[in-house]
Amino acid sequence: MSKHRIFTMSFANLYPMYLNKAERKNRSKAEVNEIIYWLTGYDEAGLQQQLAQKNDVETFFAQAPKLHANTSLIKGVVCGVRVEDVEDPLMQKIRYLDKLVDELAKGKAMEKILRQ
């Protein structure tokens, strides 16, 4: 079976889509980055390196320093799919990031988005 198309997409191509979604709702690039740092363990330098290398989404998550311990608290529906029920581990990580950016765009407070 072939890989899902998003797995092979460059994270550098996906990242501006997250930014656009947030910025259309008057949220900032810094907030999107904070979500990515929280979820993946990347810091600014690590994220910029991933973007510069144009690594695919699969590599982006495979090289992530450490997925946050509270990811199990991310619940809800993204694109009609309940994130906690996604069976493929990589797709679930992608859906987690989608869900967090969706919550940001919907105006949720960062403390709630970051499950603090």
From TrEMBL:
The protein's name: DUF2200 domain-containing protein
Pfam family, one: DUF2200
InterPro entries assigned: UCP033199
Organism: Zhongshania aquimaris
